[in-house]
C-alpha cells in the first residue's frame, strides 16, 4: 500500500477508478429518459422558506409621513413564521414588533438608512413589502417603492431632460461579504458611464448613493442596468423633476421581445413610453394600446430604437384620460417603462410578469395608508381574465371576496366596495383565467393638487419551481 501511495500515477489511477464507480452507480440508479423529460417539464416545486427585502430611506417633503408595510398570506398547514426588521448594519438589533404570516405588519420608515426585513417560514411565503410616503394636510405628496430583494441584475427606465433635477440610485448590500457593482446607462445617443459607475464596491452591510445626473442631463430618456460581478445588492432609483414632482421608479422586467405594462393612470397628463435596446443593432418595436373599451386598433404605433440606446414614444393620444395597458413587441430584446407627468405630479409604471396560476397567480397589495385612495388596474392583453380581490383588516381578518372580470384585450379599473378597515388587498387569478397584469394606483388629494404613485404588482408566490438536474456532478453530489 505504501508503494501505491508513493507512486503518484498509481494514486491518480485509484482516484479515476473511484470516480468512474461513483458515476456508474449514479447512471444505474438514474431515472429513465422519459422520467427525466417529465421531471424537467414539471421541475421540483418547493415552499418559499426565507425572504429578504431592503427598503431605502424615504425621500419626501417637510411634514411627509413614511411607512413600511409588509404582508404574507397564511398558507394551508403553515405556522406564522417570523418577520424581523433591522437597520442595514452588521450588528443591528430588531426594530419595532415582529411580524407573522396572515397579520399585516407596518412600521415608521427609517429616515437615514435602509431597513432590512428578514422573514422565514410562513412569513416568507408570498411576502410583499412596500414603503409609502404621503404628504400632510393640504400639501398632497405621494411616493411608493416596492422594497427590492437583493439581486445580481436590476433594470429601470426613466425620463431625462432639463426638468430632471435629480436621478439617484440607492444601493444596499445586506450580506456578510462585499459586492462589486457596475451601472450601465443607456441614453438616447448611446451608452453613458463614468469611473463612478464602474467596479463600485459596496461593503458588507453597507450602502451608497450614486447620482446619475451628469450622465443623463442631455438625454430625454434613460435605461439603467444595475449588475454585480460579485455579491448582490438591492437597488432603488429615485427621480425628482422640477415642476412635476418626484417618485421612485419601479424596476422593470429584464430585456425581452415582448412586455406588458399596466397601471397607466387615468386623467389628463403627459404619458410616454420609454424603451431601450442593448446590443449593437437597432430595434423596431410595435406598441399596442388597450383601454377599458378594448384595443385601440387604429393607434398601433412603431418605435425605432437606436443601438445600445433609449427612445421615447408619446402615448396620451390613444389613451386619452382613460387607464391603460401597453403591449410592446419588438424584433430584438428591449426594456420598457412608462412615465406619467402633469403639473406638480409624476408617477412611473413598468412591465411585470403576468399573474398566472398555479404558482404565480397571486399578488399582494400590503398597504393602504390613511388619507389616500387606492385603485386597482387590470389588463388582459390576450384571453380574458378573472381575478378575486379579498380585503384584509389590520387584525388579519379577511373580508368578502369580490370578483372582477376582464374581457379579452381590455383594461379594467373596477369600483370595489371595500370595508373602511381594509389594510391589505389580496389579488388572486381564478381557475381557468387568462394571463392578467395588475397594478395599484395610489392617490392623495384631488383635482389639480392630486398626487399619484403607481405600484406594478408582481406575483407573490408561496412556492417556486426549481429546475431538475441529472447526469451531472452536481446531481451526483446532491
From TrEMBL:
<protein>
    <submittedName>
        <fullName>DUF5719 family protein</fullName>
    </submittedName>
</protein>
<dbReference type="InterPro" id="IPR043777">
    <property type="entry name" value="DUF5719"/>
</dbReference>
<dbReference type="Pfam" id="PF18986">
    <property type="entry name" value="DUF5719"/>
</dbReference>
Amino acid at each position: 500500500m505504501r508503494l501505491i501511495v508513493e507512486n503518484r500515477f498509481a494514486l491518480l489511477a485509484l482516484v479515476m477508478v473511484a470516480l468512474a464507480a461513483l458515476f456508474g452507480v449514479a447512471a444505474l440508479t438514474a431515472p429513465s429518459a422519459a422520467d427525466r423529460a417529465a421531471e424537467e417539464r414539471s421541475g421540483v416545486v418547493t415552499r418559499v422558506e426565507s425572504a429578504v427585502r431592503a427598503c431605502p430611506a424615504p425621500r419626501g417633503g417637510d411634514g411627509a409621513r413614511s411607512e413600511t408595510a409588509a404582508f404574507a398570506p397564511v398558507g394551508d398547514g403553515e405556522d406564522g413564521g417570523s418577520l424581523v426588521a433591522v437597520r442595514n448594519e452588521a450588528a443591528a438589533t430588531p426594530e419595532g414588533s415582529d411580524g407573522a404570516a396572515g397579520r399585516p405588519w407596518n412600521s415608521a420608515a427609517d429616515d437615514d438608512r435602509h431597513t432590512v426585513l428578514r422573514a422565514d417560514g410562513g412569513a416568507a411565503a408570498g411576502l410583499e413589502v412596500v414603503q409609502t410616503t404621503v404628504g400632510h394636510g393640504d400639501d398632497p405628496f405621494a411616493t411608493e417603492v416596492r422594497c427590492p430583494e437583493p439581486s445580481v441584475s436590476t433594470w429601470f427606465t426613466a425620463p431625462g431632460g432639463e426638468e430632471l433635477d435629480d436621478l439617484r440610485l440607492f444601493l444596499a448590500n445586506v450580506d456578510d461579504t462585499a459586492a462589486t457593482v457596475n451601472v450601465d446607462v443607456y441614453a438616447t445617443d448611446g451608452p453613458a458611464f463614468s469611473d463612478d459607475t464602474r467596479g463600485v464596491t459596496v461593503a458588507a452591510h453597507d450602502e451608497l448613493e450614486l447620482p446619475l445626473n451628469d450622465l443623463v442631463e442631455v438625454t430625454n430618456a434613460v435605461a439603467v442596468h444595475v449588475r454585480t460581478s460579485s455579491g448582490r445588492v438591492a437597488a432603488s432609483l429615485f427621480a425628482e423633476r422640477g415642476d412635476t414632482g418626484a417618485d421612485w421608479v419601479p424596476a422593470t422586467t429584464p430585456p425581452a421581445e415582448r412586455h406588458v405594462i399596466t397601471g397607466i393612470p387615468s386623467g389628463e397628463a403627459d404619458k410616454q413610453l420609454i424603451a431601450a435596446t442593448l446590443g449593437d443593432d437597432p430595434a423596431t418595436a410595435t406598441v399596442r394600446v388597450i383601454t377599458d373599451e378594448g384595443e385601440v386598433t387604429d393607434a398601433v404605433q412603431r418605435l425605432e430604437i437606436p443601438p445600445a440606446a433609449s427612445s421615447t414614444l408619446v402615448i396620451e393620444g390613444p389613451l386619452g384620460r382613460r387607464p391603460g395597458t401597453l403591449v410592446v413587441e419588438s424584433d430584438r430584446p428591449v426594456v420598457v417603462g412608462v412615465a406619467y407627468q402633469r403639473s406638480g405630479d409624476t408617477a412611473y409604471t413598468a412591465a411585470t410578469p403576468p399573474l398566472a396560476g398555479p404558482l404565480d397567480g397571486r399578488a399582494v397589495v400590503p398597504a393602504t395608508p390613511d388619507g389616500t385612495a387606492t385603485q386597482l388596474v387590470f389588463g388582459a392583453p390576450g384571453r380574458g381574465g378573472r381575478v378575486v380581490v379579498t380585503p384584509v383588516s389590520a387584525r388579519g381578518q379577511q373580508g368578502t371576496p369580490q370578483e372582477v372580470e376582464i374581457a379579452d384585450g381590455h383594461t379594467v379599473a373596477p369600483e370595489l366596495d371595500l370595508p373602511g378597515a381594509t389594510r391589505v388587498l389580496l389579488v388572486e387569478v381564478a381557475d381557468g383565467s387568462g394571463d392578467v397584469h395588475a397594478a395599484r394606483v395610489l392617490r392623495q388629494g384631488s383635482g389639480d393638487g392630486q398626487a399619484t404613485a403607481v405600484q406594478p404588482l408582481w406575483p407573490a408566490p408561496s412556492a417556486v419551481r426549481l429546475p431538475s438536474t441529472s447526469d451531472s456532478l452536481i446531481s451526483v453530489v446532491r
